[in-house]
Amino acid sequence: MYKTLCCLLIISISQFTAASEFKWDDFAQLPIVEQPQISPDGTKIAAIYNTPDGASVIYSQFPTLDFSILAKLKLGRDRVDQVSWSGNRYIIISASYPQWLRGEFYRVSRLYAFDLETQQSRELTLRKFTKNSWYEYQTFTIVSNLKNDEDHILVSTYDDLDAGYSVFEVDLSNGKYEKIQNNEHNIHYWSADKNGVVRLGIERHKDDEKITRTIWYREKEGADLKKLYTRTLGEGITFNVIGVNDDGNKAYVLSDRETGKQSLWLFDIVSGKFEKLIYSNPDYDVENGLLNSQGELIGAYYSDDYLRKFYFDEKDSEQEKFLSKLLKSEHVYIVSRSQDKTKILFAKTEDNKPATYFYFDSTAKKAGIWVSEYPALNKRQFPHVQNFSFVTSDNVELHGYLTLPPNIKHPPLIVMPHGGPHSRDYKYFDPEIQYLATQGYAVLQVNFRGSEGFGTQFESSGYFEWGKKMQQDVYEAMDWVINSGKVSRGKACILGKSYGGYVALTASFQQPERFDCIISVSGISDLQELVEDDDNQGMYTGHIVNVSDEKAVKALADVSAINHINQIKSPILLIHGNKDTRVHYEQSEDFYDKAKRNKNIQYIEVENGTHFFDEQKSKQLYFEEVTKFLDTYLH
């Protein structure tokens, strides 16, 4: 069968064509499809479909591209966050939008069900909630798509009777809600097993000096919740339950105990002790559990340069290895499967080519290309992304990526620190990185200390280091690449988004002679303002500053660009969406207002722009403005 499928794939690939001419707006696209999901019976595919007119939810017969549109979102407002199946009849859509409250935008999530039998959709909301004054701010999230009951799902939403988030069973045929779980412990996150029994709840408590996280557990249906584990943020070993076994007496836990890396452990709930280590990687954290389309835990995953999966069932591993062999690539992973595992969507990823989705039907012995993530870029030749590593001046080993434009000696350098900061860069194809390379720029990405995925010690070494060691790592990575002789010694720009935007603005005053230009996108100019916002304190406590330490909070002024405008020499471009729910656009607007009289600065406020510019219009405006700015100050 392997040889037959190889022939089929060669035929499919030979028919896979794309445009021969490329402009900047070819790169300023959203992925044409996202989150493709096969129905449990393997007959259909549901996915998010992106167009210039906004996102739609679509479905087709497996494995065709003959799509039908189920729902089209309101351009400039809605975003599809998740698409999933409830049995073979219902497609559940989780969408969100920014809602103005107390001077800021907050993201509100809503749920919808589309019935393939009746071809009708309904919003999944409880009528009594719509009468509340706070309904427009109410969020609904899926707790479980019940494996053995396609007509119901479990939903968590705020209930004023509990003054907290409770769990309801929702009838998809009529939208009726039935409360099945009260909230007695200020729990903000719930998890259920495959049979729909609410097993876990996570409580988060904040006082003046610390944040504690308590995991509550139900041993069996009808039993009371009991405390399983309590941890103070930043203290002791990590403990994150990602699932329970079928008997409900063992938990799968991610913890850094013994290994220093997030590892997968089996925890005995009855004895309260760790039973055994299931999987660990010596260099990288296990990021989370792998769930199948029925919500069952089937393994875990980590990332080196690319996603790597560990399956509990060796047959699952063998199936993924077979698909890798089929495409002759190590970078192949299963995206979605039917319940019997005979119908599969899988993806091939590379550093210099857009990801491509393939289908495989083991019953019909057919395989082929389904769709490319970025069809307009398929035939373009892009440079490979190079790995690098170096040791900092204080003896910390850092890793990163360098993308060089072809046939250009000593190109201008763009330093691109990632956001988060507790996230990381990967080696996947990135349209923006490759676009900059086509324009003749080298692009440097470094996983500075504080980046996630490299162990607890490495990530926590970035706590309280905004504008300090994390910032210095970026400068030293730049020194390393310049000293390597691969890029220009005299032409460089720094471009960052979110936390990366903070790094860019901080570099503008800490090292004003180093960069020819500064680009901050959705960036932070005033750390003190950020952490003094009550709504941000839970998110940033332990990462930026201890908010109860008044002296430390005031010291944030020393590493906030808004207080050092007179030291800035380079031209600055600020871009910020006015519906950013993560970093308020006033962080850019206030900085611009203070700097515009005496500095070379531009501010682009993106109408309806979110933190991630997740509409094509916003993304294209971003690419256009960055292109013009770089053409002026770096070419």
UniProtKB/TrEMBL annotation:
Keyword Cell division appears in the UniProt entry: no
Gene Ontology terms describing biological process: proteolysis
Endpoints of the signal sequence: 1-19
Keyword annotations from UniProtKB, A to Z: Hydrolase, Signal
PROSITE patterns on file: PRO_ENDOPEP_SER (PS00708)
Domain Peptidase S9 prolyl oligopeptidase catalytic: 429-634
InterPro entries for the chain: AB_hydrolase_fold, Pept_S9_AS, Peptidase_S9_cat
Domain of life: Bacteria
A molecular function (GO) term: serine-type endopeptidase activity
PANTHER family attached to this UniProt entry: DIPEPTIDYL PEPTIDASE FAMILY MEMBER 6 (PTHR42776:SF27), SERINE PEPTIDASE S9 FAMILY MEMBER (PTHR42776)
Stated name of the protein: S9 family peptidase
